[in-house]
Specification:
The complex is a heterotrimer of chains A (290), B (338) and C (520). Chain A has 290 residues and is mainly α. In chain A, 75% of the residues lie in helices and 0% in strands. The longest helix of chain A is centred in the first third of the chain and has 37 residues, at 78-114. Chain A starts with a helix and ends in a 7-residue tail after the last helix. In chain A, 52% of the residues are buried. Chain C folds into two domains: 2-229 and 498-518, D-Maltodextrin-Binding Protein, domain 2 (3-Layer(aba) Sandwich), CATH 3.40.190.10; 273-491, Dipeptide-binding Protein, domain 3 (Roll), CATH 3.10.105. The chains are: A mainly alpha (290), B mainly alpha (338), C alpha+beta (520).
């Protein structure tokens, strides 16, 4: 019996020894993500109060007792808001990353494979956007779209399209030259087949790592946008917004309003970053120069 | 030499279409923003007639292509237009606020380089040991901490609890900028009039914001330096130097670091974008009167021309620095020119 | 080696930062005033915000004015006036021998020049002149006549607002608006009030010195330094460290509470004329039905709103005419109540709504124009409305520019607004929201010819008692028709060091620096 339990554990530790510290980083990241995903999926198990309830407790109560992280000036429980807030930030970031990757990969494949004027044109536009400070573009887009969860998701998604584009285009260009692709063409494989069977699978591995790091970045941008007040109505619970609202209380001692939301943002971003870094090192040690 | 010159010219020319595209993107994004700036500008009670007249005056009734051409024409003449909301030329507004941002980002960059490079070199030196892991961990963690949150925590710690440093603005309430303001770079301006108390005040106000910005970006440089140093440390000449008995510290921190430095410098160019994004968030948190805050203020006011002007300036700075960095790299490393 | 040398140098430079400077001894005659407000344009023909107007109150004079802390009109640049029989012509006899600080004489020509300039430049506040004044005639150097378009009984109080202030024609450009004093001829702001501007650095400080040429009561201090803070927390810290003598607008509510509790400072509280209210779009469903408007208004619980969002630092308001203003009543308290959930439910039921069939509508707010606690205000109000069990509120927000755009598009079903008065008269608080024209302009679209007649009559009526009766009636009708529901009235807080005297807050929002002094 003990042996049955021991086997997966020993395999686990063996991986750790094999890959060194990267493995533990990856595991730590995965663990953090798992906890917060759980928080997002089953908030009612962890949150004692309704995050909107303005009767949860006394006004601006200190952390402790029934309120793990204290209450705010509308008498809402901070911990409950943290728990429900995980849905917003996770939802927006992951969705934005998915949109980004789909669009970026599509255009990257297209551009890399088609070449010529299409490639030149797309590359120029993508380069311009890539070089531009992402946050500023996101701010302008968020201001343009107006408040709302969908709008923020799009604003964040747009910024990362060039990242995927460049990555995939580069890989496509390289693979396009490979002998086996030429061979495939010789035996009559059409373009879609080549793209699907040869280029895409090779691109996927690197893309996964970029995706994870992208989510981490998207988390930071989403929180920054809502912190700046560019994002969401009060019917949505959000860590960045709560952070901004807590700023007023800096000098009057209600430190918990600022500390906990920020801590959570950092932790979640860290989780995804560690996952990505760990994956990168393990899958391909000299992959990313960033 | 000729090769180099050709590269410089080619690279500079390439910047033009990029800038052009950026300008177009900016134009499009801004025109699509909801909210009519004219009625907001004219306050609560303006009758329809006056609003129409103002729109006419500002050229908002022309077809969009005409507005686009006007826009490009203006920008090429370095005229960024007039603010819609306040009686001010956009270039004047930017001129007022730009030095503050430059001062902040410069000091932030200095701290980033100092911290990032030294830690990175040290980590490379102690490869695979505990210090290396710790520093690499630091690199990852610091990147994930939102710059504005770090700012708030530092404000709380050093500004409120310990009360060592000020938490907002460039000068304290008893120091009057009108006494010394000349270029807008206060460290220089205060020294120019020999006002040492003001100099001290300005310096003290720079500490927390640039520390925040600098720390936030240091993670990237830690990793970069470490990676480059690892490469350099493998080189033959390092082995040779060691064989000749040169001290370890000298090898790592003088010889190796010097050689690893060039790619780091060029990397700096690419990080300008991150630096500016970080500056906006830092300026908001520390109420720093720079371009970042100007941008946000004017977004709330829907002051199109100023918003446009600020974004254009940011874009131009990025394009220019990226160009500069590429040129420096080409000058230093002959392999790059093509 | 080299690294070490640099490190030491840097450390030394860093230490320089911590050497304490000599303490700051504020000269007895200089008062330092901290604020988070901003100056807009130093041109009475353009500025339309209270802080810039506040500076004008102290640097310029109107024909009439309010004494510090009081609401009765007294002669200022004009000694007396007569009104023609039809109420359309006001002739003012001007004070003799008044000069601007550069020596330019003040006379009727200056008055006419200034009014014509405001009308010609057609900027934000110009309607305060052009809506009422037909033309200005110079009768003789010391007498000026205003010919109005219609008789307006509160015209004298209009004259106290900055667009009517006479400006120095030698210094202000006739055909252009001015932003900074540096754009004026001579580079200085030249007024004829108790102070003159001696230094102006936008967003940093404005320095005023007592004007030796002022004809009226001389200020009790020599210099006022207005120090601009970008951040309320820093202002609080500066106050606590003694770096400023007083702070006015706008400290965080939690900071005000802390400073009050600490008992180390003087807290001067005044009733401001700033009001906040909920607007209904009275055209289109559902709020074209006044019963539903009453129902929503009955759900508003003012005290919890003020406690939660503002830590108790404002006052509940039961009428659009604010407290402290002549003819104010408390009609909303009795009906629809504060709150009266039973009434709200009854009214909703009578219109066919229930727990299963909720009245669904949007509540809009604007996130930064009124300060950053709007999102909290909307959240609390949503909670209160939904507490009836029969309403479902969708909260939306839009930046100020879009918010105002939405009026014409009739986009917002209910929305939160605020109002600073242009002039001190109940007309400014009522006609603007329920008169057909004004209501349309503010997105409310309430229109009732009987009301319009009452407003018009009140505007022209010269008998004070008759006017009072009209406004009292309007307020009572307001609690029935509810085109808007008043929520609270803002309190003004000035927090000062213990030795400062003479801080007088007034419902006119006029804040005079003259009476302020430091106890020896």
């Amino acid at each position: 019996m003990a042996q049955g339990l021991g086997r997966p554990f020993r395999a686990f530790a063996a991986m750790g020894r094999k890959y060194g510290v990267e493995w533990w980083i990856l595991m730590f990241g995965a663990a953090v993500i798992a906890v917060i995903v759980f928080m997002a999926m089953f908030p009612h198990t962890l949150a004692p109060f309704d995050p909107f309830s303005q009767e949860a407790g006394p006004q601006l109560a200190n952390p402790g007792g029934p309120h793990l992280m204290g209450t705010d000036n509308l008498r809402r429980d901070v911990w409950s808001r943290i728990v429900f807030g995980s849905r917003t930030i996770l939802g927006v970031s992951v969705l934005a990353a998915v949109i980004s990757s789909l669009v970026g990969i599509f255009f990257g494949l297209l551009s890399g494979y088609a070449g010529g004027l299409v490639d030149r044109g797309l590359s120029l536009v993508m380069d311009a956007v890539y070089v531009f400070p992402g946050l500023i573009l996101a701010i302008a887009l968020a201001a343009m779209f107006g408040p709302g969860v969908i709008n923020i998701t799009f604003a964040v998604a747009v910024i990362y399209i060039p990242t995927y584009f460049r990555l995939v285009r580069g890989q496509t260009l390289a693979i396009k030259q490979e002998l086996y692709v030429e061979a495939a063409r010789a035996i009559g494989a059409g373009s879609p087949t080549i793209l699907m069977k040869y280029i895409f699978p090779n691109v996927i591995a690197t893309t996964v790592v970029v995706f994870t790091l992208n989510v981490a970045d998207a988390i930071m941008i989403e929180a920054a946008l809502t912190y700046l007040g560019l994002g969401l109505p009060p019917s949505v619970v959000d860590w960045g917004m709560d952070l901004a609202m807590g700023k007023k209380y800096l000098a009057s001692g209600q430190w918990w309003l600022i500390t906990f939301p920020g801590l959570m943002i950092s932790t979640l971003a860290l989780g995804f970053t560690m996952l990505g870094e760990g994956l990168a090192e393990i899958l391909n040690p000299r992959l990313l120069e960033r | 030499m000729k090769n180099l010159l050709r590269y410089i010219i080619a690279r500079t020319l390439m910047t033009i279409p990029m800038v052009f595209i950026l300008l177009t993107i900016i134009f499009v994004v801004l025109r699509l923003m909801p909210g009519d700036p004219v009625s907001a500008m004219l306050g609560g009670h303006a009758p329809e007639k006056v609003i129409e007249q103002k729109r006419e005056e500002l050229g908002l009734n022309k077809p969009i292509t005409a507005q686009y051409v006007d826009y490009l024409w203006q920008v090429s003449h370095l005229d960024l237009g007039d603010s819609m909301v306040l009686q001010q030329k956009v270039t004047v507004a930017i001129r007022e606020k730009l030095p503050a941002t430059i001062e902040l980002t410069t000091f932030g960059m200095i701290i980033t380089l100092f911290l990032g490079v030294l830690l990175g070199a040290y980590a490379a030196d102690k490869r695979r040991q505990a210090q290396d892991s710790a520093i690499r961990l630091y690199g990852i963690v610091i990147y994930c901490i939102p710059v504005y949150w770090m700012g708030l925590m530092l404000q709380l710690l050093f500004g409120i609890w310990l009360d060592w440093l000020p938490i907002a603005g460039r000068t304290g309430p008893r120091i009057f900028a009108s006494d010394f303001e000349y270029t807008g770079f206060y460290l220089f301006d205060t020294l120019r009039v020999h006002d040492f108390e003001a100099f001290r005040d300005v310096l003290v106000h720079l500490v927390l914001p640039s520390l925040t910005l600098g720390l936030s970006l240091s993670g990237i440089f830690v990793r970069l330096t470490r990676a480059n140093m690892l490469d350099v440390l493998k080189a033959d000449y390092i082995l040779a130097a060691s064989a000749r008995g040169i001290s370890h510290a000298t090898i790592v921190y003088r010889h190796a670091l010097k050689n690893a430095f060039i790619p780091i410098l060029t990397m700096m160019g690419l990080q300008v974008a991150l630096l500016m994004a970080g500056a906006i968030l830092t300026e908001t948190t520390f109420s720093w009167p720079g371009m970042g805050r100007l941008l946000l203020e004017r977004i709330y006011l829907r002051d199109y021309p100023t918003i446009q002007g600020v974004i254009i300036v940011f874009a131009l700075i990025v394009a220019f620095i990226s160009l500069l960095v590429d040129i420096i790299y080409a000058v230093v490393d002959p392999r790059i020119r093509y | 080696m080299r690294v070490r040398k640099w490190a030491v140098l840097l450390l030394a430079a860093g230490c320089l930062a911590f050497i304490p400077t000599g303490g700051f001894a504020a000269a007895g005659d200089t008062i330092v005033y901290g604020t988070t407000e901003k100056v807009s344009d130093m041109d009475p023909a353009k500025a339309y915000d209270f802080h810039t107007w506040e500076i004008f109150y102290n640097v310029y004079q109107g024909l009439l004015s309010y004494p510090p802390g009081r609401t009765n009109l007294v002669p200022a640049l004009a000694e007396s006036w007569t009104v023609s029989k039809d109420g359309k012509e006001y002739t003012f006899k001007l004070r003799k021998g008044v000069k601007f600080t550069d020596g330019t004489a003040f006379d009727a020509g200056v008055v006419k020049w200034s009014i014509d300039r405001v009308a010609a430049l057609k900027s934000d506040p110009s309607w305060l002149v052009t809506d009422f004044v037909e033309r200005v005639d110079v009768v003789d150097p010391l007498r000026v006549k205003f010919v109005l378009k219609n008789p307006v009984s509160y015209f004298p109080s209009l004259l106290c607002s900055p667009p009517y202030y006479p400006l120095n024609p030698k210094v202000y450009p006739k055909d252009r608006l001015v932003r900074d004093p540096s754009e004026l001829k001579g580079g200085q702001l030249v007024g004829n009030g108790p102070y003159k501007v001696v230094a102006f650095k936008r967003d940093q400080e404005v320095v005023l010195e007592a004007n030796p040429l002022f004809y009226g009561t001389k200020p009790l201090n020599k210099r006022i330094v207005i120090r601009y803070f970008a951040d309320a927390t820093t202002m609080r810290l500066a106050l606590e460290k003694g770096e400023i003598d007083f702070a006015f607008k706008t400290l965080n509510p939690s900071d005000i509470r802390d400073l009050q509790k600490s008992k180390k400072f003087q807290v001067v509280v005044g009733q401001g004329p700033f009001i906040r209210y909920l607007c209904f779009r009275c055209e289109g469903r559902p709020f074209n039905d006044k019963v539903l408007r009453q129902a929503v208004a009955a759900a508003i619980a003012r005290k919890p709103i003020i406690d939660k969002v503002y830590l108790g630092q404002n006052a509940p308001l039961y009428s659009m005419v604010p407290m402290g203003m002549w003819t104010h009543t408390d009609d909303f308290k009795a009906y629809p109540g504060d709150p009266n959930l039973a009434l709200a439910r009854k009214l909703l039921k009578s219109k066919g709504y229930s727990e299963k069939n909720k009245l669904a509508f949007e509540l809009w707010y604007t996130p930064s124009h009124y300060g950053d606690s709007e999102v909290d205000l909307a959240a609390v109000m949503k909670g209160q409305m939904e507490a009836t069990g029969m309403m479902k509120v969708d909260v939306k927000s839009a930046e100020w520019a879009t918010f105002r755009d939405n009026y014409a598009g009739k986009v917002m079903t209910t929305y939160l607004l605020g109002w600073y008065p242009d002039y001190l008269d109940p007309d400014n608080y009522t006609a603007a929201f329920a008169g057909t024209e004004g209501s349309k302009g503010n997105g409310i679209f309430f229109s009732n010819p009987a009301w319009d007649r009452m407003f018009k009559q009140a505007q022209m009526e010269t008998d004070v008692n008759k006017r009072a009766a009209i406004y009292k009636k309007v307020q009572k009708m307001w609690a029935d028709e509810v085109p808007t529901a008043p929520i609270f009235q803002g309190n003004l807080y000035v927090i000062a060091q213990k030795g400062i005297r003479g801080i007088l807050l007034s419902p006119t929002l006029q804040f005079n620096y003259g009476p302020i002094s430091r106890a020896k």
